[in-house]
Write a structure and sequence with these properties.
By secondary structure, the chain is α/β, with parallel strands linked by helices. It has 31 helices and 34 strands. The chain is elongated.
Length: 1079
């Protein structure tokens, strides 16, 4: 007689499994009663009757007892590592627990039940693991009689199984699962897949804002891409979420299809270390376009990125690191990685490093790289705006590289720099097509050298020249008018936002007419010193004659700004009635009224060539806009595609000023309701007609491509399913010895552990939140240890293990041992004895300071002193340094867990920094919007000097001189080489001495405007040793006390002198409190 299986309500199973009411999500695929035990082997425990439930993502083991039913086991299919046979009528499922421990369940049942159960597990498993590599899939160690064929072939969900993978990841992180937002997100993925769109742009998705009711979990969506093969491009720029970098780092550890990644301007501050680690761990990544602009990238993170670049097995086509607060040494290691992998760097077409501080070191690094790749590179666009460049170092290499598009805007170009660029670059280049000198502070002398070189060059075919925002005046206009006639290749000229009056502009226009082989396409003279009246009329008449005489001119910008032309534009607008060559016209902000609107309307009735017209921010009223709209509404003009008036349109909808200057200035809110609705309806009809014109133009065979309206930034097109190969390196480059690895770089080795690679002697001091000192002691033998001055010191070795040692080493000063109450680090490099004077206030450890003079006196030999980097000078930098170190330690712990566990398809179980539903941290946002970043440099304008950057300069001559000078210290005049140092001062005298030293150090630092160096502080010795010294050497102790009193008196005299000096220099008083807090 057959046994009756116990009943379990379907509702209980669905609730336990997490079944939702939507058409997606978890579903019951198979249920069966078996004999099971909670053990990975058959002899682990007794067998009991259990209901096994197989879902789309999870499995359950439900027991039914005397007191009711309950879920005994629950695990995700991603955690399953192996299914193996124990006997003829049993098999075992092994899976990883929450702590990566090996767990399992063994089941007994008739063979037919086991076959169907195993097939159900395999069916669900293969749907959620599409694209996963075999190394991460579960193992099937089953005989053939237990494996039966699938009922139906595999049908992947949209985007090569991404939808099922996303749902599975959502159930893997159940605390952050949202069904409503997930449904909308899945619908979007279906739409992208149906339209063959391979770019997933999270910035344009509904529910991307964390506070939205339709918000979905972005972390889950990004980690679902880790093995997806459909999406090729990911855009995450400007999102207000935390953990974005952690998620994309986990994704890139295994993804082999994403070729374009945009992480620009992350609005919540987060370290880019996980991204760098993910790229290093995945040598098979295909990232060819990387945008990390507007993010802070410190030296250790850049070192890891450079390690990844040097190991790329494919070409990097586009790299954007603008506004990343890169310092000169950081830029130097970037180009060193380019030289270690010439095959990768020779494929770069677009390189943007603008708004970073190059200085001498960075300029020499990029100049050396460009000099080596001459004739074999692919570089077409180089953007170096506001980089504090040294053109004496990088000017000549620009000549041999011969780049197509060069942006040097916002870099100070004086007469010397202009001569170098003119004589070494612009007189011989051939491929230069765009040159941007905007905001370079150029004067007549600089322009003369530039234009002389252009006149000598007969190889350039076409070039666009941007000289805007240079404060050009009458003298510069006269010089340009004499030189511009020889620029036969000039295709576009931008002299907007200068100080050119109407006479100077007319002088330039007369010179432009005389250009041989005239080929000017675009002319921009906007926002200059225009004037109404006869001079303005003559200027506009001359412009009208120019565009009628030379049909090559297709774009004209004469926007008024602060000095509008108003009715002086009448000759130009009347000339456009019969003109059939001009395509784009900008006459915005010119104070045009209703009378001028009538002339514009008449021009639109007759003109058949104008495609783009900007009329924004003028003084048209309701009548004026009606006159302009009539040619469009009655289908008289079918060629105008773009009529620009966004500010006016915004004013209409926000009920501010709709201006009617023909009569009186009136508020739009003061109009009647009918008039108000009339003008809004008029704008809507105009936009509809413009859309119809654009559609008709698009179906024509010859479509004009706008040179002004559709001017987009330079982009590199990467074909789908194409990986740019490494460029063949020429023999003269392959024979060069590769540069050494970057100093102090944290890289990830093959096992996922963090290893430190160093080649120079460096001591780094940083302060964490608990006021302890973190010291990095680096030896010259390429081995490093990280010592933290707590009770025990840990160092991370190359294998990821941690060695703890009690750092009780004694610091040698004048041949005498000094013991401290806390454990101090002993930094001895190349047999150099350090003079360590540590203050014991608040039981905090301080860094060792090196005194070359004392070493020479005591040891009788000179030795090089290790470089000492300054203590971070604000709390932001300290917290950022600690976050980087914590990220590295978390990466080590994650690698240990991943290595210890068996192979499975499971993603990381815990989020690294945050598990909430992507709500931004208030503190992190406060850091972004409420505090200043002293690590970033100050972008100078045309009135700033090049030395106005911050004190973190590694390249200025004055900075180098200050580093060679000894650190100013409070003088312990009485210290002798044959006597031990003891502290017998009272607490008050110690505090007074400390304040004296701090004040003197602050004043020395502020006066030189260099990096802050920690002052030398005298140590207190252990009390027990003091008592022994009192007993053993009473006379010596008495002498030292007398010498200490004399030292205090000397320091008090110096303190009084410093106070008098501070009274004479009032600027120092404002900085005392801040500097003392930093120290």
């Amino acid at each position: 007689m057959a046994t009756v299986e116990p009943e379990v309500e379907k509702k209980f199973i669905e609730d336990s499994l997490g079944v939702t009411s939507q058409s997606f999500g978890e579903q019951i695929t198979h249920t069966v009663w078996v004999e099971a035990n909670k053990s990975p082997n058959i002899s682990g425990s007794t067998f009991n009757k259990r209901l096994i439930v197989v879902g789309k993502c999870k499995m359950l083991s439900i027991k039914r007892g005397t007191f009711g039913k309950s879920v005994e086991l629950e695990f995700h299919l991603y955690n399953v590592s192996e299914i193996c046979a124990e006997s003829e009528d049993s098999f075992t499922i092994k899976y990883n627990g929450e702590n990566n421990e090996q767990l399992g369940i063994t089941m007994k049942a008739p063979l037919d039940k086991l076959q169907i159960l195993i097939r159900a597990i395999r069916t669900s498993y293969r749907r959620i693991t599409c694209g996963f590599p075999e190394t991460s899939m579960m193992k099937l160690n089953l005989p053939e009689n237990k494996l039966i064929d699938f009922e139906v072939p595999l049908i992947m969900s949209s985007a090569h199984g991404f939808v099922d993978g996303y749902i599975a990841h959502s159930y893997y992180y159940p605390k952050v699962y949202k069904s409503i937002g997930t449904l909308d997100f899945i619908r979007l993925i279906d739409a992208l897949y149906s339209n063959d769109v391979t770019e997933i742009d999270f910035t344009q998705m509904a529910g991307i804002e964390p506070s939205s009711e339709l918000s979905f979990n972005l972390f889950t969506a990004i980690t679902s891409l880790r093995n997806n093969t459909y999406f090729k491009s990911v855009n995450l720029s400007g999102l207000p979420h935390a953990n974005i970098v952690n998620a994309i780092g986990m994704c890139l550890e295994t993804n082999k299809s994403i070729s374009k990644l945009n992480l620009s301007n992350l609005r919540v501050e987060q370290s880019l270390q996980p991204l760098a680690n993910g790229l290093v761990k995945n040598p098979s990544n295909v990232i060819q376009s990387l945008d990390l602009s507007k993010n802070n990238i410190p030296f250790p993170i850049m070192a890891t990125l450079c390690e990844c670049f040097s190991k790329f097995s494919h070409g990097l086509v586009s790299l954007n690191l603008s506004k990343c607060d890169l310092l000169p040494k950081t830029i130097a290691i970037l180009f060193e990685s380019f030289e270690r992998n010439f095959g990768m760097s020779l494929a770069i077409k677009y390189l943007n490093l603008s708004h970073n501080k190059f200085g001498d070191i960075g300029s020499q690094a990029i100049g050396g790289w460009m000099a080596k790749i001459r004739g074999h590179h692919s570089l077409d666009c180089l953007v170096l705006a506001n980089c504090n460049l040294n053109f004496q170092l990088m000017g000549p290499p620009l000549r041999v590289v011969d780049i197509g598009r060069l942006d040097l805007s916002l870099n100070r170009i004086d007469r010397a720099s202009a001569k170098i660029l003119g004589n070494e670059v612009f007189d011989t280049v051939m491929n230069l097509s765009e040159l941007n000198f905007s905001g370079c502070g150029m004067n007549a002398d600089s322009l003369e050298d530039i234009f002389i070189s252009f006149n000598r060059n007969r190889k350039i075919s076409n070039i666009s020249l941007n000289l805007s925002h240079n404060a050009l005046g009458a003298r510069e206009a006269t010089l340009m008018s004499k030189s511009i006639s020889g620029c036969r290749y000039l295709e576009a000229l931008d002299i907007s936002n200068n100080r050119l009056n109407c006479r100077s502009l007319m002088e330039l226009l007369n010179a432009i007419k005389n250009i041989d082989q005239f080929n000017l396409h675009e002319l921009n003279i906007a926002n200059n010193y225009f004037a109404q009246g006869p001079e303005g009329d003559q200027l506009c008449q001359q412009l009208a004659n120019l565009i009628n005489s030379f049909p090559t001119i297709r774009t004209l910008n004469i926007s008024g700004g602060k000095y509008p032309l108003s009715k002086s534009l009448t000759p130009l607008l009347e000339a456009l009635v019969k003109n059939n060559s001009l395509k784009e016209l900008d006459i915005s902000e010119n104070g045009l009224g209703d009378s001028m609107a009538s002339i514009i309307g008449e021009m639109l009735r007759e003109n058949t060539s104008l495609i783009y017209l900007n009329l924004d921010n003028n003084q048209f009223g309701l009548s004026g806009w009606t006159a302009i709209a009539q040619p469009l509404l009655f289908d008289i003009n079918r060629t105008l595609n773009h009529l620009i008036f966004p500010k006016t349109l915004a004013s209409a909808y926000t009920s501010t000023l709709i201006q009617n200057f023909a009569s009186t200035l009136q508020s739009f809110g003061a109009l009647s309701k009918d008039k108000r609705n009339q003008i809004i309806l008029l704008f809507q009809k105009m936009q509809d007609k413009l859309a119809e014109n654009r559609f008709e133009t698009s179906v024509l065979d010859s479509v004009y491509v706008s040179e002004y309206f559709n001017k987009n930034p330079y982009t590199v097109h990467i074909p789908e399913d194409y990986v740019t190969p490494l460029v063949d390196v020429p023999e003269h480059l392959s024979s060069l010895p590769p540069p050494s690895s970057p100093t102090l770089s944290e890289s990830v080795n093959g096992s996922g552990a963090i290893s430190n690679v160093t080649t120079t002697t460096t001591v780094v001091a940083a302060t964490n939140s608990s006021s302890h000192i973190l010291q990095h002691s680096i030896n010259m033998n390429n081995s490093s240890s990280i010592n933290t001055s707590n009770s025990s010191v840990g160092s991370v070795n190359n294998t990821g293990t941690t060695n703890n040692s009690n750092n009780s080493n004694n610091n040698n000063v004048n041949g005498v041992n000094n013991n401290n109450n806390n454990n101090n680090n002993n930094n001895n490099n190349n047999n150099n004895n350090n003079n360590n004077n540590n203050n014991n206030n608040n039981n905090n450890n301080n860094n060792n300071n090196n005194n070359n003079n004392n070493n020479k006196q005591l040891n009788g030999a000179g030795s090089s002193t290790p470089t000492v980097l300054a203590v971070p000078n604000d709390r932001n930098q300290r917290s950022r340094s600690n976050s980087n170190s914590s990220t590295a330690s978390s990466a080590v712990s994650l690698s240990k867990r991943s290595n210890a566990s068996s192979t499975s398809a499971a993603p990381p179980r815990q989020l690294i920094t945050q598990t909430s539903d992507w709500q931004p941290n208030e503190e992190s946002e406060a850091d972004i919007y409420g505090t200043s970043n002293n690590n970033s440099f100050v972008a100078f304008s045309t009135d700033d000097e090049s030395d106005n950057y911050t004190q973190d300069s590694y390249d200025d001559n004055s900075s180098r001189k200050s580093k060679q000078q000894p650190i100013r210290k409070s003088k312990p005049k009485s210290i002798k080489s044959n006597a031990s140092v003891s502290s017998v001062k009272s607490a008050a005298s110690v505090k007074s001495s400390s304040s004296v030293k701090s004040l003197k150090s602050n004043k020395s630092t502020i006066s030189t405007q260099k990096e802050i160096r920690p002052p030398v502080i005298i140590n207190n010795q252990d009390d027990s040793e003091e008592e022994e010294e009192h007993q053993e050497e009473p006379e010596l102790r008495q002498n030292e006390e007398q010498e200490s009193i004399e030292t205090d008196q000397d320091e008090q005299v110096e303190f009084q002198e410093d106070e008098d000096e501070a009274g004479r220099e009032n600027n120092f008083n404002d900085f005392h409190s801040d500097s003392q807090q930093v120290l």
